[in-house]
Hints:
Layout: H1 2-8, H2 10-20, H3 24-40, H4 49-76, H5 89-103, H6 107-118, H7 123-130, H8 134-155
Helix pairs in contact: 2-3, 2-4, 3-4, 5-8, 6-8, 7-8
Amino acid sequence: xxxxxxxxxxxxxxxxxxxxxxxxDDQEDVVQEVMLHSWENRARIRGRLENYLAVSIRHLCGxxxxxxxxxxxxxxxxxxxxxxxxxxxxxxxxxxVLRDALDRLPADERRVVELHYYQDMTLAxxxxxxxxxxxxxxRRLRRAKEQMRMELQEDYT
Length: 157
């Protein structure tokens, strides 16, 4: 029953997603993700399905926008260049250096960093997908960032 209702709401969901996203591909991604989330949480849906879907789309788009802004802030921060390069190649070099430092992290910490910064997942989403407590995610992320910061400072000071 819910599957038919979700398919029937697809045009409505695309209209709502259009308000919050820039491209058709992003709209389709958001709609698919919300449909999957709705199906997985179908027992919790109360009230009108359209209202639930609109709120879910708005929350997902908001989370994506925050994650994107967080990444832009990280890349815009001058501390990440370490004053080694001054031209456009510095961003490429920095990403390579960061990737190398990331690869040296323990697997659990590396996984948290990749999910949070590269897959744009919130801490709560990571905790749910990895079946860990949110506090564990926070600690692993903090440890990973501190270890990467120390390694990069050693390499470039």
